[in-house]
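Hi there,

I know you've been waiting on this one. I reran it after we fixed the sequence typo, so this is the corrected version. Both the input and the resulting structure follow.
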Amino acid sequence: MINHKCDAFIVACIDFRFQKFIKNWLDKNFKNKTYDYVGFAGATKDLKTIMKQLDISVRLHQIKQVVLIHHEDCGAYGKESTHDRHVADLGKVKKIIKNKYPKLQVDLYYLHLDGMFEKVCGKI
């Protein structure tokens, strides 16, 4: 089996309104880097599915970084799509990932409707 390594595992929502912002951000921040990209409604809301994908990325591609991107006005969250809820959920996911993979760098972002990426400090 050929050993394929990549730099990061990135999770964002499928919402079409944000794809241009995400692409531009990735082009700028991951220039000359490789990454596995997962687009899933609600980003990390279905944590079981996301963790399965992360496990594969760690096992097959020996990633070193995880980037989780939630966004404003997320339909998968419905009325629960508040800034505080997303920040709390991102923090919970970071804790779970760090418990399982303590050496991974985990970066959290909240993407606003205007395209601004807000770095979130998820407490663990």
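Quick highlight: Helices lie at 19-29, 47-61, 83-100.

Best,
R. S.
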